[in-house]
Write a structure and sequence with these properties.
Shape: flat
Helix content: 55-70%
Strand content: under 5%
Largest sheet: none
Order of helices and strands: HHHHHHHHHHH
Structural class: mainly alpha
Distance between the termini: 15 Å
Number of helices: 11
Mean pLDDT: 88
Low-confidence stretches: 1-12, 356-362
Number of strands: 0
């Protein structure tokens, strides 16, 4: 039975719920922009320009020549300068510094954008410690804070011997960003009033299972893309659909030990990502076709249509990025597309979940 009222125990009217959902969606948008900034720092090799993590003073920029010289001198003590940028001047250093600086400051701004409204909701008693919503918000805040730690843990891997961050830590950093976006979106969507499906809708669980497994597949594909970025595998085999003149290239899993090939061997890493991406777009289109004759709510149908269209856009971006040997703009767009597709898959899961319970009970 569909419950269209808000449970009294939630102590929220729909207007307040909508305000909080809008806030969470706004923060999710900020995380999305953070992912874009992170991708740009990776593509422009700017991520190792700041060799210190100052939690409380890290957003004070250099103001004068003395500040710049001090920062550049610190950078010169690390492997990236010696092995990659030994001829870099102070002006060149400034060129890679600002993007990483903005990336880190944006992370701090996100902390305030989440914590201050959260505190205000507590003061206004829109959210109480005794309610499940408080613990959801607190969990989101802890997730966000942990991402800052994960980011520095990733950067540290590039400050030792090899002037490049570990692909494992890079993928973990990206994966945690996806978890944060998913959690923000899920809680936000749970606060919004749901639309009921047509009374003649049959077997919603089947489409719901499809949506769930597609979401899992897209998550796996996105994480495999993290290993492509971390190993620079996108700069090899810049042809499609063939790799080295074959659908299945030689040298797959040619790594010691073989079980690490999907994470360290460029051929295997790229082949896996291609295969997962191709499987994803085919299954998303099948899912889209399966939904056509179902009596779905208009918002659900819209979510599925956007999901299907974005899958086509994303595979197009991926192929073009590969053929053009990963230009910065296309590489960034492809990463953005991955997050959008991931988010649309989650939206479909939320719309198709059963039973159709009221938003505040999910």
């Amino acid at each position: 039975m569909t419950n269209t009222t808000i449970p009294a125990s939630a102590r929220l009217d729909q207007r307040r719920a909508n305000w909080m959902a809008g806030w969470l969606l706004g923060v999710a948008g900020m995380v999305f922009f953070m992912v874009v900034l992170g991708g740009l720092t990776r593509l422009t090799h700017s991520g190792l320009s700041m060799v210190e993590w100052k939690l409380f003073t890290g957003w004070i920029p250099p103001f004068n020549d003395t500040d710049w010289s001090e920062l550049f001198d610190k950078y010169q003590h690390f492997p990236e300068f010696h092995k990659v940028n030994a001829d870099m001047t102070l002006e060149g250093f400034k060129g890679i510094f600002w993007l990483e600086y903005i990336h880190r400051v944006w992370g701090r701004l996100m902390g305030f954008a989440f914590f201050l409204p959260f505190a205000a909701f507590m003061v206004m008693r829109w959210v109480r410690v005794s309610e499940a919503l408080f613990w959801k918000f607190l969990g989101l805040f802890i997730l966000g804070a942990s991402q800052g730690v994960m980011g520095w843990y990733m950067v540290m891997s590039g400050l030792v011997d090899r002037p490049d961050v570990s692909q494992y830590r890079l993928t973990a950093h990206f994966g945690l960003a996806l978890v944060i976006i998913a959690a923000l979106l899920w809680v936000a969507m749970g606060l919004l009033k749901r639309e009921a499906h047509d009374a003649h809708h049959q077997d919603p669980e089947n489409l719901g299972r499809w949506a769930f497994w597609l979401f899992a597949l897209i998550s796996l594909t996105a994480l495999s893309g993290g290993f492509v970025a971390g190993t620079d595998a996108g700069f090899a085999y810049n042809t499609f659909p063939l790799m080295d003149g074959a659908l299945v290239p030689g040298g797959l899993f040619d790594h010691d030990p073989a079980w690490r090939a999907p994470f360290e061997d460029i051929t295997t890493v790229q082949f896996n990502h291609r295969t997962l991406a191709e499987l994803t777009v085919v299954l998303v289109l099948v899912f889209w076709v399966k939904s056509v004759d179902k009596h779905l709510a208009p918002r659900t149908r819209r979510a599925i249509a956007l999901f299907g269209m974005m899958a086509l856009v994303q595979v197009g971006l991926g192929v073009t990025t590969l053929l053009m040997v990963v230009p910065v703009a296309l590489g960034s767009l492809h990463q953005m597309g991955a997050v959008v597709l991931f988010s649309l898959a989650l939206w479909c899961v939320h719309e198709l979940r059963a039973p159709r319970l009221d938003a505040r009970s999910s």
